[in-house]
Structures are given as structure tokens and as C-alpha cells.
Amino acid sequence: MYTFKYYYQHIIKQDLLTKFDYNNALQIPFLNKIVINFGASQSTFKNLLPSLASAPLLCSQFPYITISKKTTLLLKTKGGVAIGCKIDLRGINKFFFFEKFIFCILPRIKNFCYVVVDNNVFFKLDNLFLFKEIAKEYDYFQDLPKLSVNLNFKAKNSKEVSVFLSALKFPPIIKSQYD
């Protein structure tokens, strides 16, 4: 946790200050929250249990179940049915997950692509066995769905977000809203 916080305070902030002009220290972009989502269009509670059990292993926080509000024929979902689980990471848990992702998971992903839209960065992780906590319990977590991750930044525009990510040694942007 302290490694990323220290790196943000001393490296990323200085990098952003040299590239952009800020009138106030509160205008410097920072990571606001991380939203993690295990989603499935048609899932039963039995299929949802591995996702619910893996979430505390990934990010030290318990998820809440997302329930569909109304019936959608296009997505083949009924109203009032559990369709996934979601976690909002803030504070210490946000730094814990992000540091684990940056230092342990990202170097092991070969074709990592993400999308930057306004102040959000979206990406999906197909292979969750990159997390050593999940890999230890392979038999139980075989049928995990993809993990959708949303990094929400407090920034003026997407250019500040891309500079922030380049300071963290993210790969170059593949897709952007303005392309």
C-alpha cells in the first residue's frame, strides 16, 4: 500500500506538474476509486458463488450482489434475478488492489488492452489465475467469469489520465474515445 502512495506523492505528481499547468494542488489528478465487477447475463446463485468467494481474495473486501431491475429480452435476463457481483474500492483497499495489479499482474499479461473514456479506464481480465490467491484454489475457481475493472480518476480530461498511466508504465493506449 505504501509503495504506490509514495510513488504517487513523489514521482507521479512531479511528472504531472511538469507537463500541465495547475493553479491549485487539488487540481492534480488522482485515482478516485476502483470498481470491480463479475458479470454474467444469465446466472444462477450456484454460478455466482465462486465469484462471491473470489472477490475477498482479490481485493480484501466483500462484494454486493447486483440484481437486474427489469426484464430485458435482448440480454435474456429476468427482472429481480442476481446477475453478478460488484465491489467499489476506496481508501486502503484501492491502493492494495492497484499496487498488486501494477507490480504483480500487469507484467504477466501479454496482450493488455484498455479503453480510456473521459476520466475512466476500462479493461477486462480473462485469466484470473494470474492472482496467486486464486491459483492456489484452482479446483474451486475454474468457472470464474471475466473480471471487469474500472479505474475512476479525478482529472480534467483524458490526456491527464493517459499521462498518469504512462507514469505507471502502462502499455500505450490501444483505443480512445476520440479515435
TrEMBL record:
Signal peptide feature range: none
GO cellular component: ribonucleoprotein complex; ribosome
MF annotations from Gene Ontology: structural constituent of ribosome
Keywords: Mitochondrion, Ribonucleoprotein, Ribosomal protein
GO biological process assignments: translation
Family to which this protein belongs: Belongs to the universal ribosomal protein uL5 family.
UniProt-recorded name of the protein: 50S ribosomal protein L5
Organism: Nannochloropsis gaditana
Lineage: Eukaryota, Sar, Stramenopiles, Ochrophyta, Eustigmatophyceae
